[in-house]
Structure formats: C-alpha cells, structure tokens
Amino acid sequence: MEQEALRIPKLLKPVTLWVHPEGRVVGSLFLHPQSARGLGEEQPFEVLNHVVPFVVVRCDDPQGIRFYSKRAIVRVEYRETQPLAESPGQVCLDCSLYMMDGALLSGIIKEALPPGQARLYDYININDQRFIKLHTGDSGLCLVNKAYIVRITPDNDT
Fold first, then answer.
1. pLDDT digits (tens, 9 = 90+) for 78-92
2. CATH number among 1.10.1060.10, 3.20.20.150, 2.30.30.100, 3.30.930.10, domain 90-154
C-alpha cells in the first residue's frame, strides 16, 4: 500500500528504438500526464532531451523494464496521436539525414526559429538538444540523435 503512494502516474507511449549496438527495440516510453513546457502531456522529444543520461523503456519482447543510455539511442520512431499546433515563427525544413548505420532518413524539420537563423544549417548548430525531431509523413515522427548523423542535406533551396 505504501509503495503505491510513492508511484508517479505515467502514460505509456509506444515507440520503436534503434539502439547501438543492440538494434531494434520495440516498447514504450513513460511520459508525464502534464508537460513541463506547457499544455498537454509530455512528449517523447522532451524525455529524450532531458538532462538525465538514461531513459526508462518498457520493452515488449522480452517483456520488462530497461534503462537505456541516451548516447546509445540512434533514433526513436513513433506516431503522433494529436497534431501539435504550429508555433509563431515555425519554419519547415525539408531534408535528408545520412546516418552512421547506413540509413537514409527523409522528412521535414518543423521548428520555431529566429528570423535571422531559420536555415537548416542554423538549426542543427544552434539547437543544443541531443535529439532532433524529423516529421516523416502520415503523423510519423523520428527523433534522431545528432551524434549518429554523418551528414544532412537540404531537399529544397533552404
């Protein structure tokens, strides 16, 4: 009974992680019902960019809880259940990411950036977060660890 009182309520978000050197891991991230950044529930992007070095994952097969080092996570893929509202100053940057494992990821980076720093080059250099968010279409999102990106190329005239 006392253990239950210490439990922090969390939501489970189904994700697929690509972990080095383990490979594909299917499971769920634990999210707070309320985001520290604003309205709505916490997002996987917030969890992965939080300063703590490990993230908790409830794995599907074999079932169990694991703690993964964020440095070893190459990317995390999931579906967005509710589209996030556009923010003022948001730009859309079409790009392709060439990864160390040979994967090629294409999509759009949608971020609010200062008017004088709204290019792809500016974004990847001014953003101090470990993971960037790549919209891959049909409500798909891919959170990519910048340490595993070999190169990024713009897919338009950005």
1. 998 776 667 778 999
2. 2.30.30.100
